[in-house]
Specification:
Blueprint: H1 2-22, H2 36-39, H3 44-53, H4 60-83, H5 89-96, H6 105-133, H7 147-153, H8 166-210, H9 217-237, H10 273-281, H11 295-304, H12 313-318, H13 322-330, H14 336-358
Length: 370
Amino acid sequence: MSEFIQSSLKDLTALSSRITGLSLFSPNEILEDISTADLVYLLVPYVFSEVRGRVRTTDREERIVVLRQTQKDLKSFLSYLDNYEIVPQEERALHDRRASSIADPTRRRELKIKQYQKEKDLRARIEVLAVRKQRGQNPLLDSNPMDFDLISSLLPSKSPTKSSADGDDEIDSETDDILREATLLLLRLKYAQSHSQLESMDQELELLLNAPPSPPQNARQGVDDRRGKGRESDNDMWKLDAPRSSLGPDGKGPLLDPSGKPLRPFTILPSNAPNRARLQSQVFGPGHQLPTMSIDEYLQIEQERGKFISGGGPASEAAPTSSEQLTLDAEMDGTLEGEEKSEAKRLKDENWARYTDENPKGAGNTMNRG
């Protein structure tokens, strides 16, 4: 592909030199002075820019040089059209406005739509002329023409035939009018496309000129070496270790053969595998904590801990007090338990009598006298 592009550039350079040597276009001439066969050669600078733009570059400086040369070709093409006033004033005013210079998004969108509609209208008119030209032997373009095919179809034939009949002269005159109109429409179409390409190239040049400089070759090679070493260390880190036991880590046999081929399916788990399994089991569970025991079991455990006060209520009111129960138990004569309760009742009564003797009634009341 690059050889084809370089060959095309050489041919275009030779063609441009011949055009300059023959002085096909002069600033002293007007559009009517240029023949239809020579009119198509006004597109040479545009074709030059199209082919030059397809040159593949790897360095930023090379790309900048290519862009500037391409811009120079396009500006030369536009100057030809401006000198011969091929493009009407309304179209020139429309395409001279740059959408990137308009801050309002709505107005910028409207401008792009108008420019696109104008290009579409020019293409439609060229297609109409193509249908008229297809009535002859050499069609103007195919059903789906490319830009280069359209330009090549306008070039004069290498061995033109001369007709002698009057009817042939009329056909040649009609064909010449169609070719001239089609060539002028194509020039107007390329005028619009050239302005769009110049705007895009200016934006690309601004990015390239403001971009940081590329590192030198030695530094770039050092960065590549460091990246290569980093990749090797990453590969070593993620390599599987050889099995240490003949039966494998789970005792079911080796996982890999000596060449590293898996012998059976296995799963590599992280260090937090138990916690991961616990979290995985809760994925499809409820969002709240489920109870681990019933209410009766909980009350039984709390009662064993002594957190409940027993007694009270009607049953407790009918039951005898501790003193009454002691008196009833002391009345069980003839039994060992009755004698023990009788002795306990005697000691209680004796202690109470001693307490009343040592502390007479009202002895603790000082009547607020200290």
